[in-house]
Amino acid sequence: MLRIYGIKNCSSVKKGLDFLNERTLEFEFLDIKKLDEKTLNLWLQKRSFQELINTAGTTAKKLGLNKEKLLALTDSDLKKLVLDNPSLIKRPIIELQGQIYIGKEYENI
């Protein structure tokens, strides 16, 4: 089953949902703000924090997080930061057949 994680009113997520609906793909929508550690760990088996975190987003800016600061943090610091602020993650995140697609990568499905 295809799962898409995001925030309903996020324009990037809306575009992803439109893409999936246009292709009549069946999916489950999950609120990324309810992200749990188990799911994050699954994503991190396939992708890195550098790929997952949107340093250009509003949340990162509020936290003063840029690419250099991101590289200076440990994985455990990053995990706590993401779990406390799930809107740091680039959206949407799509899980499909063991793969993780981030942002506009849904166009490759």
CATH superfamily: Glutaredoxin
Q: What is the H/E order?
A: EHEHHHHHEE
CATH class reads Alpha Beta
Q: Which fold does the CATH topology refer to?
A: Glutaredoxin
Q: Main beta sheet: strand number and arrangement?
A: 4 strands, mixed
Strand order of the largest sheet: 2-1-3-4
Low-confidence stretches at least 5 residues in length (pLDDT < 50)? Answer: none
Average pLDDT figure: 95
Cα distance spanning the termini: 13 Å
Beta-strand proportion: 15-25%
Characterize the overall form: globular
- With helices defined by DSSP (H or I, 4 residues minimum), what is the helix count? 6
Radius of gyration: 14 Å
User: How many beta strands in the DSSP annotation?
Assistant: 4
How is this structure best described in words?
This protein has one domain: Glutaredoxin. Helices cover 43% and strands 17% of the residues. It has a four-stranded mixed sheet, with helices on one face. A hairpin with a 2-residue loop joins β3 and β4. The mean pLDDT is 95. The chain is α+β, with helices and mostly antiparallel strands and 109 residues long. The chain has six helices and four strands; from the N terminus they run βαβαααααββ.
